[in-house]
Each structure stands twice: as structure tokens, then as C-alpha cells.
Amino acid sequence: MRKEDVSGIIVYVLILAVAVVFGLTVLREHATAVTEDMGGTFVYIIYIFGAILAGVLFNSILFEMAHITGAKIGRYEIVSVNILGLLWYKEESKTKFKFSGYDGLTGETRILPKKDAKKEPNPSPYLLFGTLFYMIELTAAIVVFTLFSQSEALALKNIAYFLLIMAVLGGMILLYNILPIKLDATTDGYRMRMTTNAANKIAFNELLRVEYAISQGEENVEIATFTEISNFTAELNLNKVYVLLDKKEFEEAEKLIDIIIEGKEKVSEKVFIRARCQKIYINIITKPLEEARKFYDEQVPMAERRDISNDRSMVGIRTYLLMSGLLDGSKSECLYAINNAGKCFNNTPKQRRKVEADLFNDAIDKIDQLHPTWKLSEYHIEYVEQPVKEKKKKK
Description:
Blueprint: H1 3-38, H2 41-73, E1 76-83, E2 86-91, E3 94-99, E4 107-113, H3 124-148, H4 154-178, H5 188-194, H6 198-215, H7 231-246, H8 250-262, H9 269-286, H10 289-299, H11 302-310, H12 314-327, H13 331-347, H14 350-370
Antiparallel strand pairs: 1-2, 1-4, 2-3
């Protein structure tokens, strides 16, 4: 289990503990006082679920509004806003909507540095305004609760507790989001800790620019590389690695990968494993089998091999495919990797699918040369590049 997963479990347990304590103290007292007057236990349960639902929805919107406001102050453009899977984004100067996943607990606002910004865009407001907006919400909830919680009027008392539940839920979301550690989703607290370094702030903005350009299908995107490693600079280097792999410039790609591997303690386990996968892939694809096996035996510990086998990305799949076919000689594990390839390929960003299809097929061909009787060539990924839509001419 990765350390991000362990950290995530600890945080979720902490949030659950807050919820349990709040329920057994504040809500129990409230329930005892008003349940009978409200019409019974069933009605009170509906009241609690309504407050929870309202709290999740309100705070999800609140935090993304905070991100939008902070981004604009920090000199960024808004690329898209995702609230609980409801995504609004711009395409050809029009705002569009669709359902989509997101990297966050309740939502995600993607941003892009403004091209005409006179100063380097500053991510601090974007990352800190969630806390600021929540403090305003909490202050309002405390004021209302203080005024109404002791009221003789049942409606006012229930409004006070309803708003308090919403505020507590917001606090739980904020707690998850402000912790300065890498969790299962990328948090503002983690980004804030990383961007306190001036070089990382530049890398953060560069990563936003590069990922957006690639997502828009731009070709020959210029990608800066870094020797000072952090999660942001490592991800930029890995983006550059894809460009080099597409050109079959394996030696140059390996140099960038080695920088990341040497900075293992400064990056997340996910980023490190992806870098390790690329290193193993290049070794097996480009070097004599015995040389690749020596590197594998001496430098890839069992724990990393296990992480690679569990990595559900195309880089993990094609690397594990080569490990299984050429180093371990296991046809069954090759088929296991191949069976997972389809779903992983579909989850690969569109701009990476062509290069991943080529790299996966190269791995299949390499194994086919050593084990022709396995007939793995029938599992090639057939990638058909989608035609680029022509932009409508303005009348």
C-alpha cells in the first residue's frame, strides 16, 4: 500500500471521528430536545439527511467559488469547473457542460496562467481562498447558532442546528483539503507546501500550461525540464519523456528519468513508480536481454515490482508486460497485463493514446520475437487517430 493511501485512510478516519463525536454530543442533545415535537424519529432522520445533503452541496459550490475568485486574483484564466462530477468548461469560446471525474474530494477548478499577465501568476490566492471562504461561512453559522439555538421557537432552533451541521461538514472537507500532505487526491494544502519554493511556483505554472496545451491537441509543445526535483518538476520531466519516447530518443529520455529516480524522497510514490516504469521499459526495449535482466535484478526491489504490477496506467501495463514476458517468462502474466490494457488505454488522455499504442505494440513485438508460439501479436492496440474538428468560421 502506497504512503498516499495510508495517509488518506488516516485522514478519513479522523474525519469520521469528528463526525461521530459531533453526532454523539451536539446532535444527540438536539435530538433529545426536539424529536418528539418534530413528529418522531423518522422525521428527525430526514432532517439530518437534508442538512448533510445541503452541507455537501453548499460547501462544494463554496470551495469552487473560492478557487475561481482566488485564481482570478492570482492572474489565472479558468479552464473548467467541476462540482461533484458536474463539469463546466470552455470550448471555442463557448461554455459547455458534461459529466466528468475530478481530482479532489468534492470538486476541481482547473486554471491556466494568463498569457498577458505582467507578473508571474501567483497560485497562493487560488490555494488559500477556500480557507478564507470557509471562515466566513463558519463565522456566519456561529452567529446564527448563538442567536437561535436557545430560542423557544422550534423552527429557529432547527435552523440553527441545520446551519451548524452544514458548517461542520464544510470543516471536514476543509480539513481534508488543507493538510500539507499527498493524499489520494491532490489537495490545496499539498500544492501550497510545494509552491512556497520559488522554483516550484514556476514549475507549477509551467505544468498548467503544458498540460493544457497537450490536452488541446497542440503539437510540438515546448516543455521546460528541471534538475531540481519536486512533484511538479518531476511531472514536467515525465511529460518531456513522452515527447522523447515518441521520437525514440531513449537515451535523452533516460537522463530525465534518472533525475527523478535520484530524487525519490522528494516525489510521491505514484510519480516515482511511473518514472521507474519508464526506466525499466527503456532498458528492456533497447538493451540486450541479459543486460536488462542484470539491471532488473540489482536495482528493482520486490516492493517496486509489486507496485508496478498493480499500477493501472498504460506505462505500468506495458512495463509489466515486458517484465513478465522477457524477464519472468510468464505467458499468463502477460495475458493478465493485456486484459487490463483496454480499460487503461481508454482512460489514457487522448493526446497520449498514439504514443502509448506505439509503445505497447513495441512491447508486444519484443516478446513475440522471443516467444513466437505465444502469438501475442494478435493483441496489438489498433489506434485510429480522430480527425481534428474544423473551427467554424465567424460570419
